[in-house]
Specification:
This protein is an all-alpha fold. It has a single domain, classed as Non-ribosomal Peptide Synthetase Peptidyl Carrier Protein, Chain A (Orthogonal Bundle). The chain is built from four helices and no strands.
């Protein structure tokens, strides 16, 4: 598992699954499986913006960007490439 994938998975587990990693797949939909609600999505967005130094625009608030670990990884990488960032930031 890639470091970015691990970092995002750990955030989801710690903040939305009460620390219980139930072995969900990286392509599991957060919304379809009731893992993250609307308030949780705001928390996730705040985490993404602070941790990865990206800005999530209103038009980007779509499941294709935010509804699974795989979608988040691809979205963060696209945002960082567009901003000219080479690597991924991590929480300090």
């Amino acid at each position: 598992m890639q470091p970015l994938t691990q970092q995002l998975r750990q955030f989801v587990v710690d903040n939305f699954l009460f620390g219980q990693d139930n072995g969900f797949a990286e392509n599991t939909s957060f919304l379809d499986h009731g893992m993250i609600d609307s308030t949780g999505m705001l928390e996730l967005l705040s985490y993404l913006e602070k941790t990865f130094a990206i800005t999530v625009e209103d038009a980007e608030l779509v499941p294709e960007n935010l509804d699974s670990i795989d979608n988040l990884v691809a979205f963060i990488k696209r945002k960082q490439r567009a901003a000219g960032q080479g690597g991924t930031a991590s929480a300090s």
